[in-house]
Automatic annotation (TrEMBL):
Its EC number is 1.14.-.-. It comes from Luethyella okanaganae. This is Antibiotic biosynthesis monooxygenase family protein. Residues 61-151 form the ABM domain. Keywords: Monooxygenase, Oxidoreductase.
Length: 165
């Protein structure tokens, strides 16, 4: 018979029916709690892991520093920087780097470093053991010590120092 339940009706006070209803309710509660917990954990993990990507619309961070090298030490600085490149390039969150020398002020260099997030740079790189070697190689060349700032791209045209990877 189509659409007809062939099982005999069970009274509402039947213990087997009550147990089935209770078990079904517990299963639904358990599944709901589990789904809620998993969704909350996933949302928290995503928010934590991608906080900078969300905050900056998924755009990379560009670190900018003008490096004033002590006059007469430019060649030694450039040699030391070659060794320092391997250090920074190995860091998590590092995307790319350019170092350019000023034509007008030959002792001034422009350092642009692309990072996945500000945290990849600081505390990531700056808090790492590798940063000690970076500092040892380069910081003695600067006078005065450079200021570092972080930027997000808002416009571009033509060739640019970095492309998002």
């Amino acid at each position: 018979m189509r659409g007809v339940d062939a099982r005999p009706a069970q009274p509402a006070d039947d213990p087997a029916r009550r147990a089935a209803v209770l078990a079904t309710g517990l299963a639904i509660d358990l599944a709901t709690d589990l789904a809620t917990d998993l969704a909350t954990d996933l949302a928290t993990d995503l928010a934590t892991d991608a906080s900078e990507s969300v905050r900056y619309g998924g755009r990379m961070i560009l670190e900018h520093a003008l490096l004033p090298v002590v006059p007469g030490r430019e060649e030694a600085f450039e040699s030391a920087f070659v060794e320092a490149l391997a250090i920074i390039a190995s860091m998590p969150g590092f995307l790319g780097l350019t170092l350019s020398r000023s034509l007008e002020t030959p002792g001034t260099y422009l350092l642009l470093v692309s990072w996945e997030s500000i945290e990849a740079h600081d505390p990531g790189f700056r808090g790492s053991a590798e940063y000690g070697r970076w500092r040892e190689l380069l910081h003695g060349f600067y006078e005065p010590f450079p200021a570092v700032e972080h930027f997000v791209r808002v416009a571009e045209a033509g060739a640019t120092p970095f492309s998002d990877r």
